[in-house]
Amino acid sequence: MPWWRRGTVYQVYPRSFQDSDGDGVGDLAGIERRLDHIAALGVDAIWLSPIFPSPMADFGYDVADYCGVDPLFGDLAAFDRLLAAVHARGLKLLLDFVPNHSSDRHPWFLDSRSSRRSAKRDWYIWRDPAPDGGPPNNWISDFGGPAWEWDEATGQYYLHAFLKQQPDLNWRNPELRAAMFDVLRFWFDRGVDGFRIDVLWHIVKAEGFPDNPPNPYWRPGITERDRLIQQHSTDQPEAHAIAAEMRAIADGYGGDRVLIGEIFLPNDRHARWYGTPERPQVHLPFNFQLIENGWDAARLRAMIAAYEASLPPHGWPNWVIGSHDAPRIAARVGEAQARVAAMLLLTLRGTPTLYQGDEIGIGQVDIPPDRVRDPQELRQPGIGIGRDRSRTPMPWDATPHAGFSTVDPWLPINPDWRIRNVAAQERDPGSMLALYRRLLALRRAHPALAVGDFRLLDAADGVLAYERRHGDAVLRVALNLSHEAKPLPFRGETLLSTLPGSAHETLRADEGIIIR
């Protein structure tokens, strides 16, 4: 069985994990220094958000060189040292591949922009103005405003699904496609174990570039992107063949290399990204539904059932409750329920992904207006889409700057860092960190939790209950998503509760429990 079916992935946001050189920004040497924390958690793989050379207009998701390391983080030698240290601890290392767009400073784009006759002109998406001289169609950037930028020198618009500094690559061009596949090979040859593929469902656009239809449910206060339904700018049929080519490259390296695709789509369309047994696509189309749904037992039960039912027979599920883009789980549901969420994430069927800092329960971090760095928030302020709140530095201890740096870091640290930090929770057997470690140890000890069958069970209102079974071993999980005691839906030996002790007869308020 491949490691990624049994295993757990831990996402590191490199800017905010550990600063080793005193510039207030995390780096590769800092990650290497803190690897023992990750290994002690009991996870199996580390996914790094982008580390490539970048002007940092979107903090690394505007890539200026796909085969290098930004000096902010180190260099290729530092990467090789980190990779060796990760592998020495029995862990895997995944990188973030950004195929939809490059930086506007990438040599490819500079060449493409130099002339309509450039050999790389068609590596990006250039179009003539509409008859009125405006953009070629009505598409809206995910960061707000038109998705087209006028280039005075060559008299055409180029497409950018995100910032204007992130021009979209043209995956219909075979030379571009070959060059990007060579990027995968470059890192696979270096020894990486896989990739998380950024906005995979964006990478091909409909031929003819028709207007996107309006979204009848849009209202003020929602991101401008959602004024339109992205019918023609995302999830095009041709993209699946590209995903299958990426998978063939990964499979050609053996060793259970894994591809995780970032894909936000309804279940039926989401499931297509697994491909077929004969022509597979990504191993794990990322499933964000625990982030996107309200924290309600009935709603989560229905969502889990629908997601499980949508999977093809060869498809393996996956789950995530936090990321560099999403609000912190403890900020969303409170610390007590964040403990329940940890149990949910690590006992559902499928591969879980943890986000750095969630294992110590970092909650709401308010970013002062003068400290905002996220272009998404700067372009559309005040509607709650800022991502800085989830990217704040990791608090390691109670020394100045929380042990993250020797200087003021690039973003504020969580306000309770003096008591909410890794060192403090290491000393507390009832801490969130201790809970995560116990949950991950249980996953390793019980195949029923790691790879067993899954069945939802009946329970009282406000309680989510299910069974995991592997051979003769049966484990049951009951999660009280309410703030009042509920009947315990089954009896047995308590393996773990999210609360100290156990009431045995009832499920306490805000309690999750695993019973054999």
Query: Whole-number radius of gyration?
Result: 23 Å
> Can you count the helices?
15
Instruction: Tell me roughly what share of residues is in helical segments.
Output: 25-40%
Structural class comes to alpha/beta
CATH third-tier fold name of the domain at 3-101 and 173-204 and 237-375 and 429-439: TIM Barrel
- Tell me the CATH architecture of the domain at 3-101 and 173-204 and 237-375 and 429-439: Alpha-Beta Barrel
Largest sheet: 8 strands, parallel
Would you identify the regions where 5 or more consecutive residues have pLDDT less than 50?
Answer: none
CATH superfamily of the domain at 3-101 and 173-204 and 237-375 and 429-439: Glycosidases
Tell me the name of the CATH class of the domain at 3-101 and 173-204 and 237-375 and 429-439. Alpha Beta
Labels describing this entry:
Immunoglobulin-like, 15 helices, 18 strands, DUF3459, hydrolase, alpha-amylase activity
